[in-house]
């Protein structure tokens, strides 16, 4: 009897000390690896979201301080059960997707169909795809999602919508994902007819405080707000004579009692007549140190706007007393939409060569996700969603490793014995693809020579009477009889001054400026010799030519890999790659003929002369909106 009591007491004390098993982690394990020899160990001294994996005899032990860490450990073990023991923790505490989804179901700059969020059906009906979405994100460590477009409808803060948002938050919570919302600064005026949205007016402060209380009563772990203010027509504190700091701090104070944050975007167009590349810095740098601790300034990776290649935004180094985060664009607004292969891990790791991850509090990626069957439109674009999450977790991961992970899990027929040479050809396609896009669209630091509006094809000649000059290609390429490129040196707009030494002097000197940024910082004479020994004109021609031949080569490699690729993907991707190659020729023909009107130089040997006359290319009109990608059939019909 005594022994029984002692045993029961011992058992009871065991139960009370140990935590229950992390249920989502166990469920995922049972779903993906039934009967697996895995034990979870609660290790309170570990960091939030971190995990460790080790072997004990025949079993694997996943240790973590919290359930999310355990879940991440499961996905990590499934990805790699060889490198054990290991311990991992995320580089950035906040790793978010930004959806540019509108409440009417369209997705701004989204090329994967409509929004995944079925607002009409919510909250009563919950699509099973929300769970798929949560799992996909948790698999790569994403822990937050901003559900709606930065060009935000005030309606998202109405009670009806908040109830729908709460339902989504319930689905995502077990997967460690918090929900955030983009908010419109004029919401109090639109939703409740307040006479003002002045952040210093008491009625406005109260409105936001009450709104925050309402949100947290529905969603206790709500993440916070993302704000686009005083940019591209969006309302903001400056409409009321206040600063970005006044606006951001007012919202931050409403959220603070609940633990929420404000991500305030630095993507602005000042009314001032300065070089577009200087504006965010000019507007925000003087505000350094004026933001509340729960405000983070969200800065696009480059100073202009998600171009195929930009130098890093100098604002990252100019606000040491303010929390900063980077905004990458996963959706390919300027990189061929859902048609082109452009694996973006190399672009993002290039950014981290200049901006130390440890200087950033968080990381956001503008999502490339929609309601298409595979959620990303182009099946290969799934690799960019994967890459974003993986780099948000560990920015030191190599693009090759990330690409391999994705190819192995998503492209190849399981068990297919793909020969090494074909596999490395495939891998190389991913790793070179971003540079190929740069070559055939905007080599040597050219930027923003896209067609107005849809940002798909070339339009370096574009002129729209009445448009802001800094929305037009000529503002950026500055082609004339002397040369090409934007002079941002001390003799020009002096944007170089925003960079620290010694980089500033390096960029300022035409001979030391990295050639990939040459035309970003310099107006270069057509006959100036580059490192290759070629003149600028010849090098420009060679780069366009190289871009075209690389894109054509992708079609051949893809065909070669056919026996090893999942059949349901092969034909779809083959058609997109054909379109990519045709688009590359379109870019080359349009840009070289147009710039040649200024250089008046012959095409160098080895560069095939453009096929379609410039006048014909200028007439191409793509009737698409900024919510869709042109189909191959549409492109063929307008081009030939
Ligand atoms: C530009 C997009 C536009 C976005 C804007 C932004 O063309 O659709 O609203 O950025 O980031 O790249 O706010």
UniProtKB/TrEMBL annotation:
Protein's GO biological process: xylan catabolic process
Q: Where is the Glycosyl hydrolase family 67 catalytic domain?
A: 83-354
Give any GO molecular function from the UniProt entry: alpha-glucuronidase activity
Q: Which Gene3D superfamilies match?
A: Alpha-glucuronidase, C-terminal domain, Glycosidases
Keyword Iron recorded: no
A GO cellular component term found in this entry reads: extracellular region
- What's a Pfam family in this record? Glyco_hydro_67M
Record-annotated Glycosyl hydrolase family 67 C-terminal domain positions: 376-606
Listed A to Z, the keywords are: Hydrolase
Q: Which PANTHER family match?
A: ALPHA-GLUCURONIDASE A
Name recorded for this polypeptide: Alpha-glucuronidase
| Protein source organism | Duncaniella muris
């Amino acid at each position: 009897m005594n022994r029984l009591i002692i045993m029961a007491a011992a058992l009871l004390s065991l139960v009370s000390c140990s935590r229950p098993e992390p249920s989502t982690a166990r469920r995922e394990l049972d779903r993906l690896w039934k009967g697996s020899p895995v034990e979870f160990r609660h290790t309170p001294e570990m960091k939030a979201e971190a995990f460790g994996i080790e072997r004990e005899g025949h079993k694997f032990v996943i240790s973590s301080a919290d359930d999310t860490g355990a879940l991440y450990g499961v996905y990590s073990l499934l990805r790699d059960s060889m490198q054990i023991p290991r311990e991992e923790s995320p580089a950035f505490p906040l790793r978010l997707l930004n959806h540019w989804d509108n409440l009417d179901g369209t997705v701004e700059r989204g090329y994967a169909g409509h929004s995944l969020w079925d607002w009409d059906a919510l909250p009563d009906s919950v699509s099973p795809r929300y769970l798929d979405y949560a799992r996909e994100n948790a698999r790569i460590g994403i822990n937050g999602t901003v559900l709606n477009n930065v060009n935000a409808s005030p309606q998202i803060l109405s009670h009806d919508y908040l109830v729908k948002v709460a339902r989504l938050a319930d689905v995502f919570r077990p997967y460690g994902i918090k929900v955030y919302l983009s908010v419109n600064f004029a919401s109090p005026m639109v939703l409740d007819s307040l006479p003002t949205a002045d952040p210093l007016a008491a009625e406005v402060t109260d409105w936001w405080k009450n709104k925050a209380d309402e949100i947290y009563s529905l969603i206790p772990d709500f993440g916070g707000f993302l704000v686009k203010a005083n940019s591209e027509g969006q309302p903001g504190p400056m409409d009321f004579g206040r600063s970005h700091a006044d606006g951001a701090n007012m919202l931050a104070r409403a959220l603070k009692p609940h633990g929420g944050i404000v991500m305030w975007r630095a993507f602005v167009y000042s009314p001032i007549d300065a070089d577009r590349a200087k504006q965010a810095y000019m507007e925000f740098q003087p505000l350094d140190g004026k933001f509340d601790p729960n405000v983070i300034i969200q800065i696009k990776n480059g100073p202009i706007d998600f171009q195929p290649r930009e130098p890093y935004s100098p604002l990252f180094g100019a606000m040491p007393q303010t929390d900063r985060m980077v905004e990458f664009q996963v959706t390919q607004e300027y990189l061929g939409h859902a048609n082109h292969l452009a694996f973006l891990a190399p672009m993002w790791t290039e950014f981290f060569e200049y901006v130390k991850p440890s200087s950033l509090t968080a990381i956001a990626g503008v999502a490339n996700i929609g309601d298409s069957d595979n959620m990303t439109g182009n099946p290969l674009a799934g690799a960019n969603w994967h890459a974003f999450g993986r780099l948000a977790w560990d920015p030191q991961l190599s693009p090759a490793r990330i690409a391999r992970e994705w190819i192995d899990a998503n492209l190849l027929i399981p068990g297919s014995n793909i020969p090494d040479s074909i596999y490395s050809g495939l891998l190389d396609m991913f790793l070179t693809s971003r540079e190929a896009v740069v070559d055939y669209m905007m080599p040597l630091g050219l930027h923003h020579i896209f067609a107005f509006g849809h940002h798909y094809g070339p339009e370096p000649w574009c002129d729209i009477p009445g448009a802001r000059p800094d929305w037009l290609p000529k503002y950026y390429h500055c082609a004339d009889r002397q040369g090409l490129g934007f002079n941002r040196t001390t003799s020009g707009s002096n944007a170089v001054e925003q960079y620290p030494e010694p980089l500033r002097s390096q960029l300022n000197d035409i001979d030391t400026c990295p050639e990939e940024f040459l035309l970003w910082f310099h107006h270069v004479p057509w006959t100036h010799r580059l490192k290759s020994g070629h003149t600028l004109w010849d090098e420009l021609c060679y780069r366009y030519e190289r871009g075209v031949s690389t894109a054509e080569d992708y079609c051949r490699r893809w065909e070669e890999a056919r026996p090893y690729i999942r059949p349901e993907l092969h034909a779809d991707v083959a058609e997109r790659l054909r379109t990519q190659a045709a688009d590359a020729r379109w870019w080359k023909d349009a840009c070289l003929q147009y710039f040649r009107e200024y250089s008046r130089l012959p095409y160098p040997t080895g560069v095939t002369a453009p096929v379609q006359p410039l006048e014909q290319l200028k007439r191409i009109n793509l009737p698409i909106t900024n919510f869709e990608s042109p189909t191959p059939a549409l492109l063929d019909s307008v081009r030939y």
